[in-house]
Design goal:
Layout lengths: L2 H20 L14 H4 L12 H12 L11 E2 L8 H13 L10 H17 L7 E5 L2 H17 L15 E5 L5 H9 L7 E3 L11 H13 L3 E8 L11 H11 L2 E5 L24 E4 L12 E5 L2 H8 L30 H11 L1 H24 L3 E3 L7 E6 L11 H18 L3 E7 L2 E7 L7 H21 L1
Bound molecules: pyridoxal-5'-phosphate.
The site of pyridoxal-5'-phosphate has 15 residues, from helix 6.
Length: 481
């Protein structure tokens, strides 16, 4: 494709994207395809001859669009928000269009230095001190794998040991809670600790936050039993109920035993843009690493995960490679981001954040986050006041955890398996209808429904419409029983 052909197709594609975004509210929220349907709409073999762009666009529309669950839809209340602000989409296009290669400072000085700049802007915007230095990973999952390797290396120096993991004399342990995102268990496994060495600490029965005294006791007991405490993953906004582990208390325990403390604020990091929310991670300055995703609630398009550490010397010691073909005369004077994480080749992700901040402005981003906090409070108040509805966890941010608990045939509250059946019946009915989308999840062994508010286009009117839909669907399902 020549630059001239690109210009013509590119203009058409931008028009198409703008139209597509405008009509999202008319689409069903959840993709209405059955398994295999998208794959079957494609030919079995790759095209051999060049085709034209208009035909490609038509196929994008007919084959791909039906298979998209519309997470930018104002009635999407599932998982966590995955906003993709159009300003950041432009940054993504610029990033691809520049065709850069990030394998060393020399391979694209601008890629390294813009990343340094935006990570520092984001540090300031979230109230972190100058002790932190950041980089951009693809996801919080990758950031957590990196953090767990850093924890392992601080406790063991595996990488300096020629037998690697085989030589470990005593098991190394990581602590978290059952509320932590599944990526934490995966990171612990991938970093070589083994699932048996991930210790889930007792949580508060209502807030689901880690109990620091239980953590301290578990660590003492492990030490007495010949195990080595190596890492703690503290959830600030755990996925199920947005539980907030008490960072300051946990950090004090981590410091006492020289344990690496990683703060996973994948979703809730966006809230730290608001000074009034920062008490939720009070004590964070004493952690060793922090990960959060602007690609969630804040709305810089995937993949934009910030990873901050205080001890970059340890990070580079663990992650660095220095083959002859990557050396240059700038070495020693510049940041080599390949030594700050797992991949060598890196994308110019910083452009997405820069475009987003420049074109939308932090004031409007903050106003939107505050709107969502208000909407979540409103919904929680409605549910708390309505007969048969229960709000199951504190609404720390923008997620409301609900159950509809109607009366059973004997006039008591529906419970057990019958309650599960009822919950799944009404939530699945809503999801299948395409009118709205919600994520059911399990809390205390029973199904519940998470309402995660925060899509860029979701206003109070949408949340009111959702509340109406929840009531009619749940009450209809109860009437059918
Ligand atoms: N941590 C928490 C609390 C999350 O909610 C999620 C995803 O929703 C993750 C980690 C993983 O994020 P990512 O998809 O960026 O790996």
């Amino acid at each position: 494709m020549t630059p001239e052909e690109f210009r013509e197709a590119g203009h058409a594609l931008i028009d198409w994207i703008a139209d597509y975004r405008q009509q999202i509210p008319q689409q069903p929220v959840r993709a209405q395809v059955s398994p295999g349907e998208v794959r079957q709409s494609f030919p079995g073999q790759a095209p051999t001859e060049a085709g034209n762009f208009a035909a490609l666009l038509r196929q994008l529309e007919s084959r791909v669009v039906p298979g998209i669950t519309q997470v930018q839809h104002p009635m999407h209340f599932g998982w966590f928000p995955s906003n993709a602000s159009l300003a950041s989409v432009l940054g993504d296009i610029a990033s691809s269009g520049l065709g850069t290669l990030g394998i060393s400072w020399e391979s694209c000085p601008a890629l390294t230095e813009v990343e340094e700049v935006v990570c520092d802007w984001m540090r300031q915007l979230t109230g972190l001190s100058e002790a932190w230095q950041g980089t951009i990973h693809d996801t919080a999952s990758t950031a957590c794998v990196t953090a767990m390797i850093l924890a392992r290396e601080r406790a063991s120096d595996f990488s300096k040991n020629h037998q690697g993991l085989q030589a470990v004399p005593r098991p190394l342990v990581v602590y978290s809670t059952s509320q932590a995102h599944s990526s934490i268990a995966k990171a612990v496994q991938l970093a070589g600790f083994g699932q048996d060495n991930l210790s889930y600490i007792e949580e508060d029965a209502y807030t689901r936050a880690m109990l620091p005294e239980a953590l301290a006791a578990a660590i003492e007991s492990d030490i007495a039993n010949g195990r080595v405490p190596a890492g703690i993953v503290c959830s600030v906004g755990a996925t199920g109920t947005t539980a907030m582990d008490p960072v300051a208390d946990i950090a004090a325990i981590a410091a006492r035993h020289n344990i690496w403390l990683h703060v996973d604020a994948a979703m809730a990091g966006s809230a730290m843009l608001l000074p009034e929310c920062r008490h939720l991670w009070q004590g964070v300055e004493a952690a060793d690493s922090i990960a959060w995703n602007p690609h969630k609630w804040m709305g810089t398009i995937l993949d934009t995960a910030l990873f901050y550490v205080r001890d970059t010397t340890h990070l580079e010691r663990v992650m660095s490679t220095n083959p002859a073909y990557l050396q240059s005369t700038a070495d020693g004077q510049v940041t080599q981001y390949r030594d700050w994480g797992i991949p060598l080749g890196r994308r110019f992700r910083a452009l997405k954040l820069w475009f987003h901040l420049h074109l939308d402005g932090i004031d409007s981003i903050r106003a939107r986050l505050r709107r969502d906090l208000d909407n979540a409070r409103w919904l929680a108040e409605q549910a708390a006041a309505a007969p048969d509805w229960q709000v199951l966890a504190p609404v720390a941010l923008q997620t409301v955890c609900l159950r509809h608990v109607p009366r059973d045939s004997r006039g008591g509250e529906l419970s057990g398996g019958a309650l599960d059946k009822h919950t799944l019946a009404w939530v699945n009915e809503i999801n299948q209808s395409g009118q709205a989308f919600l994520s059911p999840s399990i809390l205390d062994g029973r199904w519940m429904v998470r309402v995660s508010i925060g899509v860029e286009s979701t206003t109070r009117a949408h949340v009111e419409a959702l509340w109406q839909l929840l009531r009619t669907s749940a009450e209809r399902a109860a009437g059918r029983r």
